[in-house]
Amino acid sequence: MSAVFRHAIRYGWLGQRENPIALVRVSAKRKRVPVTLTAEEFRALLGKLPDRERAIGVTCATTGLRVSEVLGLKWEDIDFGTGTANVVRSVTDGHVEHCKTETSQQPVPLDELTGGELLRWRSVAPYGAYSVWIFASAKLWGRMPIWANTSREKVLQAIARKVGIAKPIGWHTFRHTYSSLLAENGNDIKVVQELMRHAKVSTTMEVYTYARMERKRAAQSRVVDVLFERERTELAHAES
Questions:
Q1: Which CATH code of 1.10.3720.10, 3.40.50.150, 1.10.443.10, 1.10.150.20 fits the domain covering 39-167?
Q2: What is the pLDDT of residues 110-164, one digit of tens each?
Q3: Which of 41, 27, 28, 26 is closest to 176 using CA atoms?
Q4: Sign for the pseudo-dihedral over CA of 45, 47, 48, 50
Q5: Could you tell me the pTM of the whole model?
Q6: Angle, CA 165 vertex, CA 159 and CA 166 arms, to 5°
């Protein structure tokens, strides 16, 4: 690679003072803090979503699965007796892919509430046979799941605006909310990694970093409250 850059400079492809390394593309960590929902926002949104989107949202928010993995589920993948889901495939824009890593192939626990929501959806879903997609598209006669982007734009985001959620959200917001709550509640990092099905613990550590910052901010504010008698001052204004 260094020989290539030497020839580039020699023949004038690069300026003599230009640093060739500046042209090398390097990976970068995520710079934006992931958008999450408060518990109040989640419940307000859930209360207005139609049955199908409600079931998708509950599954994403209580398992941490990506929406592509949720759409890749078939009824045969759910064991309601043991409360587990076998995530063996994902579906994105009509393209089916099988989970390749050992981490992604591990069974995912399902809370009783999540199982109940799925059963509730099955009772009204147009397709509920054992071997079909849980979120099968009626427009495609059940042969494929719905498209996440269409559902997000036409249903999820529209209803979010109606209930007063101004932040930009998508199906992945539910996964971010789940991971944030896992970290905020002091769960073991290895448990969080396995629940989120992260291949690398460094990815899980990013979640912990964001959660710790919020806890540090709250702790800092309590100190400021004491130093400036902020709580007593605000109470005095409220009483006057």
A1: 1.10.443.10
A2: 899 999 999 999 999 999 999 999 999 999 999 999 999 999 999 999 999 999 9
A3: 41
A4: positive
A5: 0.71
A6: 115
